[in-house]
Write a structure and sequence with these properties.
This protein has about 700 residues and is an alpha+beta fold. The chain is built from 26 helices and twelve strands. The structure holds zinc ion.
Length: about 700
């Protein structure tokens, strides 16, 4: 299930999880009721035989990489994935109990317990086979011409919340007035991970496309078509998706909010797509009065209109049938589910086997009822003291940023003043929302998994559309509390740290300060720096897309950012594929800024300590060395080559090795801590620094 594209450009520390996390088929896997403890700085994760001045990532993470091969059910494995697995196993314990309990559950406990039970009931899912597809296939089959498309598509968007059905339709904050929520129509319509998946001509990309077409055909056979019909249909789907991919913006272009800003009224929207009746579409969504839209990619919608004119209804029906089956496959019987896994996880990302059922079900509860599940998680795993500690560190990092801005020699006083205003306006959200989501309108049944999935989609789509024209809800969160990740939202101008990311080994109250400031302090600094990266800097203190820079300061910023672009363009992701450093620029800038701010905050904390409390040598490492090792150890990872190829196209984050080595080469404090000499690999000849 893919949610409709989220247009608020949220910028997170880690890439989106692609498949569920954790070891599968481990003997006697059981849910837990306690958290396993992993220390915030783990000496066993280091490789002390490596020279920190030659390859610091190997030195800090070599042991981890050796001891943590990618599990069979994973595309990649990292410190973040491992903590995600710990959280999931803990949530499994909660859900297992609630699924078995029938009396005494509150409303939310009933929903998450019954959802989990329905998802775990493989026998019932198997018995229903492909039956959950039937009503959708019937609606598609009843289409008489492409004039019927708008109504059918609106119902599919409502029930699946998926922008792979021709395009995305959602609500989002107006770029120019962040207090207003308006409708957004955006590009989409493809099943492969990126537009470039259709356009690249190297042998591996061509091979993936061939296998994709074969998978589509296989799905049509499962739907009862002859192999000949199925092959023709699959070729048609590929033709339509390729045309849509061709008309889509690249991910680098989508990082420029001005390229996504095209406001139109209902007439203007209709003019883009003659032949597609928007009134019929909006009416079916219950939104017929809308007259204010942002169309992110007008060229895409023009292409859509010509595609619909050039293809008969049979072609459109074929395309829709594929996407219905693709979307629902993971909630259907094994023949659909396994075929879906074989292409989207095994072929595309190198995953060897399906994650165990419990893990998939925990993930789905988190996805569809995350704030109900989150309440259970937070009440057990996130104390007020932990919240207070996190807030203390956040404020210190913010004070560091204020000092840092003041000290910049490349920025004028005017721009500094506005940067400080923006920094002051940033809202800190720590742990969980002040106000929990009300799932009252979402009916969950213990014996209807596919129905629960669809009703959850509908709940979410309606919740998003209901925001249009209403005052902005500033309390809303874009991640669930158990999530091991964090983000900055430039239009909300807030930083968000779910309870799940404020746990050991990332944030470890039992550990000395140095690794905590290196790790979580660095993460807080990372999110804060996003407010001032190449994308975030274009939004002002109120979250509006508005240029608050003098021309000279903007130019000085761009020169410094270019240093980072040039640096990361040298690094290899996999095979001969280099980092697309224009795509990763925001994250690379945030990583470096985060480390600098974490360091500054740590210095402040140490200065406030009485002399006898000052840190000493520990595990044979000086406090300064512990800061840098602690920072690096958030990023330890192993990755499958297939997945790396997908990430090279889609992930705005650089691989872990460069999220560590790419930073320390620019840090004189690092070179001093490890006594690295000029000319060594971890000492850049020309240092980059933006913030
Ligand atoms: Zn980030």
């Amino acid at each position: 299930m893919r949610p409709l594209i989220r247009l608020a450009v949220s910028l997170s520390i880690a890439g989106a999880a692609t498949v569920a996390h954790a070891q599968s088929n481990a003997p006697a896997e059981r849910p837990t009721t306690t958290f396993p403890y992993t220390p915030g700085l783990d000496v066993a994760s280091m490789d002390k035989s490596a020279d920190p001045c030659v390859d610091f990532y190997q030195y800090a993470c070599g042991g981890w990489m050796k001891n943590n091969p990618v599990p069979a059910d994973q595309a990649r494995w990292s410190v973040y994935s491992k903590l995600t697995q710990d959280n999931q196993r803990y949530l499994w314990g909660i859900l297992d109990g609630l699924a078995a309990q029938h009396a005494g559950r509150n409303v939310n406990q009933q929903k998450i317990g019954d959802y989990f039970a329905s998802c775990m009931d493989e026998k019932a899912i198997e018995q229903r086979g492909a039956a959950p597809l039937a009503p959708y296939l019937a609606q598609i089959a009843a289409m008489r011409s492409n004039r019927d498309l708008p109504r059918v598509l609106a119902r599919l968007h409502m029930d699946f919340g998926d922008d792979a059905f021709f395009f995305g339709f959602d609500s989002s904050q107006d770029f120019k007035d962040s207090t207003r929520v308006i409708a957004f129509a955006s590009g989409g319509g493809i099943g492969l991970p990126d537009r470039d998946s259709y356009l690249k001509t190297d042998a591996k990309s061509v091979d993936v496309r061939t296998k994709y077409v074969a998978h589509i055909a296989q799905t049509f056979v499962l739907l009862g078509e002859t192999p000949e019909q199925a092959a023709r249909g699959a070729a048609k789907v590929m033709e339509i998706e390729t045309a849509l991919a061709n008309a889509s913006l690249s991910r680098v272009d989508k990082r420029d909010p001005y390229k996504l800003l095209h406001k139109v009224n209902a007439k203007g929207l209709q003019a883009l797509t003659p032949g597609f009746d928007w009134q019929a579409y909006l009416g079916e969504l219950g939104q017929s009065k809308l007259n204010n839209f942002n169309v992110t990619e007008p060229a895409f919608f023009k292409q859509l209109a010509s595609l619909l004119a050039a293809n008969d209804v049979a072609a459109v029906q074929t395309y829709l049938r594929w996407h219905v089956a693709r979307n629902m496959a993971p909630a259907l019987s094994k023949n659909f589910d396994n075929a879906h896994f074989d292409f989207f996880s095994k072929t595309l990302r190198g995953v060897e086997q399906q994650p165990p059922r419990w893990k998939r079900c925990v993930r789905m509860v988190d996805q569809q009822l995350g704030e109900a599940l989150g309440q259970e998680f937070v009440s057990r795993a996130f104390s007020p003291q932990l919240k207070e500690k996190s807030l203390h560190m956040t404020r210190q990092v913010e004070e560091a940023m204020a000092k840092d801005i003041d000290s910049l020699d490349w920025m004028s006083a005017d721009t500094k003043k506005r940067a400080q205003q923006k920094l002051k306006a940033i809202v800190n959200k720590i742990g969980y929302p002040d106000q929990w989501r009300d799932y009252g309108a979402y009916t969950v049944k213990a014996d209807d998994y596919a129905g629960n999935v669809v009703r959850g989609n509908i709940f979410e789509v309606k919740r998003h559309l209901a925001k249009i024209g209403k005052p902005l809800d500033r309390k809303e969160w874009g991640m669930t509390p158990p999530t091991v990740n964090a983000y900055f939202n430039p239009q909300m101008n807030d930083i968000n740290f779910p309870a799940g990311v404020l746990q050991p080994p990332l944030f470890d109250p039992k550990m000395d300060d140095a690794p905590n400031y290196g790790n979580t302090g660095g993460t807080i600094g990372h999110e804060l720096t996003h407010a001032f990266d190449d994308e975030g800097r274009q939004f002002d203190a109120n979250g509006n897309l508005k240029d608050w820079w003098t021309r000279r300061d903007a130019k000085a910023f761009e020169e410094r950012a270019q240093c980072i672009v040039d640096q990361y363009a040298q690094y290899t992701v996999v095979d001969d594929i280099k980092i697309n450093s224009k795509l990763t620029l925001g994250e690379d800038v945030a990583d470096l800024g985060g480390l600098i701010l974490g360091w500054m905050a740590w210095q402040t904390e140490m200065a406030s300590m009485p002399q006898q409390a000052k840190p000493a040598l520990r595990d044979g490492l000086s406090p300064e060395q512990r800061f840098f090792v602690g920072n690096a150890q958030w990023a330890c990872e192993n990755d499958r080559p297939e997945n790396l190829r997908v990430k090279a196209l889609t992930d705005p984050h650089s691989p872990g090795r460069f999220r560590v080595n790419g930073l320390v080469v620019n840090m004189p404090e690092f070179q001093k801590a490890f006594q690295c000499k000029a000319g060594q690999p971890m000492v850049a000849e020309k240092r980059c620094r933006v913030w």
